[in-house]
């Protein structure tokens, strides 16, 4: 490609609102331009990178038997109604009506569509496992788009869907995808951390994100520095014993000064750590209107996501209002750890780590002390509903550290979530009976992956593309082009490289200084810079983008290396 | 690919509503499935064909310097308002609002978007010519979708946009695209006819369609059997002289029986051919409300499209109503060829081919005769506003024949249509001045091209893919697989072919008869069928899909041919 003819030339300045390195560099180097907030033109250089990323993904997916296809982007809304997802997605669904008055959703994810196409075939057990995928546009009606390609409203996603006969076979497929993702990102040049995550609006029971560690990432996760990585929302941790050796004392209602209202007041008044007190947090299920009181040790916070999973009410809980509290006979700051009728109590695992809790039945001038699990505070089960934090302890004894990263891919167990809700989402098993599919799904955002690469590979001069995803392998620069002999030499080098099937961006401009050409080459970030000039004589100067030294080689030598 | 694992197996029956060969065969052979009317899943076999078609296009486009990029699919509606296209497109535009209340159009064609991205760069004359393209989803809110991929509501299109400094340079680019399209379709195996067409909602002055001749096609065109092919809407033809040698007689108002009302009545009464009478057709411009009377020779019909171009009022004319006629002081059947005030008269070229016209001033019991152009009937210019028909004559003396075909691609001159309407759609010329772009655009529908191939290449057994776009090159069939030695032999052949980088669909099923396997192979239509069975001994039976004989070759020989 002649740089003089390239659409998307470099510019000196990034947009004033650009904060992220990837946004600035992809803009300045001519890889992207914004259409409207969160919707980007991918310019020719950017499109070449996207295609290389897609080809790496395609190759690895095909290698493990996945099959590429393509689904429409306008999904009949009736399908989303079948799974009751029209109101429960995490992203706002965009809807549109055609002129025959049929409603569609603009695909944000395509589980229903893939179930729909598979069920048309009524597959046999012999067709399973089945893993089908596509590269297709996805739409997310994000309230806030982020600068550059990291959080956008429209993007290409590789989304794959697996269909198995049972959980055991699914787990083999899940592991296969896990390993395939590892290979894909490694080939792209990205070191990823696999982070246990919440499955959110997708449904199913567990999932994992592939995260590139980065301080500008939007994903916050906890790691024990060993092998355990998890989102705050799902991280499991050990509730260390506080005073389990202490003797159980008789339950007592005592007088308490009226100024003792908050947890901090309690700590001050009793001169005891937060962990000795009971804490209550009240939610309302916005669909059933049921009131839920979560009871937890005073030093911990309730994790709403975990609580929703315990209650099988994903996306349904909201903070209770003053009116809701009044309804069950109480008010803010005076919720009891037991006894409010009409409310459902859920206790956290931490309740078993303390003897003689303080609190739980606060009134204006009194509260309870020596409250003990099993005697005063009764639950059939305790659940893990607490929010893990930096410093929380894993079984290994290691403490969590909080890290940030960019989510570039994810794998989801869906189980029977969709096949139970959608009609005829079945295969015919060996015994001739119809059984529902056991499903999974697997996504990779293409633009975000490109941006993540730039976040990891750049310096003050520009991007440093890994060879596997670079828009071109060689950036050929001709200098002193007014000299016809040099001009003809560099054009010869260009043609020779092309004839060998090499990918070359050739800066053939005659009205630009050497300094500008070098700066553009550094900004664009192609792996090998080749220079032909008066100074290089019969040879070609070669420099790797990420190295500081150059060497002179002959065309023959350069070319022989290639063939 | 193992056929046993392929998603999208063959089925015996086509959908009951399938009429077209391509619809039936692509469905039965497992290339496509309908989601909702006009929106299709492209199954793995179909996606492989689409990708081959796209790669052929990509290669040829890149060869002539076009650059691939990608534009968002949701176009800010404000851009379509800039060009006043929100109401004038030929297809119904689908619109959608995001939750920040911003309106978008679902892209049906992307002229505005590409102008918008190019103007962000304020290019120099040195950057021109510029030709940028994408493969992207297009949406058309068609009232009626047609079975299969021939007329759909959502499809992948290659759309390219060229930017030149002036008409002269544009014409070079237009010819380049014309030739490139020829090469593309030739490589795909399609013989195309280039048909001059109306540019409709795209804007600009002229355009050409690439049409595959087919009786099931929706495109009707006229051909002189030589080099001239044109849509009915734009076809130019010669108005043969009727009686130009006749002496001009004095204009006269004569009595005429009341029963003479229609053109047929005239022919009967005067015993003269239709061509001797004047005909008037009345339209209203629905935007300006202006009344237009088109005057034409009695044997010809007015072509509304041509008339709209003459008036620079594309998409604006409608048939005049009785009320409209009353407004200019007349009624149906009594419109005059001159003299109605408030109406604009436009005359067809054919008016110069007749002397002593009959008609033009019909009243209840009278009409005019010996009406002559220039004396009684006055126009500053005559225009080509007549509809060509089968039998109309070209200058060459050849008569038009009507043919039908499938439009697989089109190329459009846009001229200054967009750059004049959109702000800053300019480049900086040599003299430092800003000048508007001279533009063109170029489309190819991917799915429709696939369907056109099937319409051209099939027999009663199924599809016969040209090798260049076949989903696989080899269809390997294993028979007698209960015999372990044969099973291992066919698997060895499969692996050997794969290791040589060959594309093989391997029918490894053990519970299917030879007959079924052969029938499936014929239906799917892969170019080379390879059979390994007891009967083939140490060799492999090879049969081309479009030939009736087989031959036995050794694996070594087959393989040596490939390397």
UniProtKB/TrEMBL annotation, chains A, B:
What biological-process GO terms show up in the record? Answer: prolyl-tRNA aminoacylation
Entry's PROSITE patterns?
AA_TRNA_LIGASE_II (PS50862)
The UniProt entry, under InterPro entries, shows:
aa-tRNA-synt_IIb (IPR002314), aa-tRNA-synth_II (IPR006195), aa-tRNA-synth_II/BPL/LPL (IPR045864), Anticodon-bd (IPR004154), Anticodon-bd_dom_sf (IPR036621), Pro-tRNA-ligase_IIa (IPR002316), Pro-tRNA-synth_IIa_bac-type (IPR004500), Pro-tRNA_synthetase (IPR050062)
User: Catalysed reaction(s)?
Assistant: tRNA(Pro) + L-proline + ATP = L-prolyl-tRNA(Pro) + AMP + diphosphate
* Keywords, comma-separated and alphabetical: Aminoacyl-tRNA synthetase, ATP-binding, Cytoplasm, Ligase, Nucleotide-binding, Protein biosynthesis
- Known EC number(s)? 6.1.1.15
Residues in domain Aminoacyl-transfer RNA synthetases class-II family profile? 46-466
**Which PANTHER family does the UniProt record give?**
MITOCHONDRIAL RIBOSOME PROTEIN L39/PROLYL-TRNA LIGASE FAMILY MEMBER, PROLINE--TRNA LIGASE
Name of protein: Proline--tRNA ligase
Q: Which organism is the protein's source?
A: Candidatus Roizmanbacteria bacterium RIFCSPLOWO2_01_FULL_37_12
């Amino acid at each position: 490609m002649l740089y003089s003819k390239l659409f998307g030339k470099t510019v000196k300045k990034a947009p004033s609102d650009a904060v992220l390195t990837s946004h600035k560099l992809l803009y300045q180097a001519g890889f992207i331009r914004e259409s409207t907030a969160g919707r980007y033109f991918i310019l020719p250089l950017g499109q070449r990178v996207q295609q290389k990323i897609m080809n790496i993904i395609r190759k690895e997916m095909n290698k493990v038997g996945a099959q590429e296809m393509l689904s429409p982007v306008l999904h009949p809304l009736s399908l989303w109604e079948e799974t009751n997802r029209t109101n429960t997605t995490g992203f706002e669904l965009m809807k549109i009506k055609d002129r025959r008055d049929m409603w569609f959703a603009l695909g944000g994810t395509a589980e229903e569509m893939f179930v729909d196409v598979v069920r048309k075939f009524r597959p046999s057990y012999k067709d399973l496992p089945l893993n089908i995928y596509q590269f297709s546009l996805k739409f997310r009606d994000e309230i806030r788009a982020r600068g550059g390609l990291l959080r956008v409203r429209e993007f290409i996603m590789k989304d794959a869907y697996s269909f198995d006969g049972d959980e055991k076979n699914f787990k083999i497929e899940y592991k296969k995808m896990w390993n395939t993702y590892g290979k894909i990102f490694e080939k792209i040049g990205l070191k990823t951390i696999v982070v246990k995550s919440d499955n959110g609006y997708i449904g199913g029971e567990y999932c994992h994100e592939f995260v590139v560690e980065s301080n500008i990432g939007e994903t916050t996760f906890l790691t024990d520095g060993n092998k355990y990585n998890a989102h705050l929302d799902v991280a499991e941790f050990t509730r260390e014993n506080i005073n389990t050796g202490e003797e159980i004392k008789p339950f007592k209602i005592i007088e308490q000064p009226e100024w003792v209202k908050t947890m901090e007041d309690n700590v001050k008044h009793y001169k005891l750590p937060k962990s000795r007190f009971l804490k209550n947090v009240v939610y309302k299920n916005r669909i059933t209107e049921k009131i839920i009181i979560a009871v937890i040790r005073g030093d911990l916070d309730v994790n709403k996501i975990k609580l929703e999973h315990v209650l099988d009410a994903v996306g349904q809980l909201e903070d209770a209002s003053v009116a809701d509290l009044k309804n069950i006979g109480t008010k803010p700051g005076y919720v009891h750890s037991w006894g409010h009728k009409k409310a459902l109590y859920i206790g956290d695992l931490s309740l078993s780590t303390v003897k003689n809790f303080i609190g739980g039945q606060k009134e204006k001038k009194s509260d309870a002390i020596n409250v003990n699990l099993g005697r005063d505070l009764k639950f059939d089960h305790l659940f893990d509903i607490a929010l893990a934090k930096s410093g929380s302890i894993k079984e290994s004894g290691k403490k969590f550290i909080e890290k940030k990263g960019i989510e570039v891919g994810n794998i989801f167990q869906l189980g029977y979530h969709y096949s139970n809700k959608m009609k005829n989402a079945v295969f015919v098993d060996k015994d001739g009976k119809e059984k529902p599919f056991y499903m999974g799904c697997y996504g990779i955002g293409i633009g975000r992956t490109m941006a993540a690469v730039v976040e990891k590979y750049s310096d003050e001069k520009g991007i440093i593309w890994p060879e596997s995803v670079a828009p071109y392998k060689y950036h050929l620069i001709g200098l002193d082009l007014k000299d016809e002999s040099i001009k003809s030499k560099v054009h010869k080098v260009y043609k020779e490289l092309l004839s060998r099937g090499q990918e070359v961006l050739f800066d053939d401009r005659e009205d630009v200084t050497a300094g500008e050409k070098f700066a553009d080459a550094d900004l664009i970030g192609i792996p090998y810079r080749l220079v032909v000039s008066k100074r290089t004589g019969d040879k070609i100067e070669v420099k790797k983008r990420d190295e500081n030294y150059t060497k002179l080689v002959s065309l023959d030598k350069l070319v022989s290396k290639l063939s």
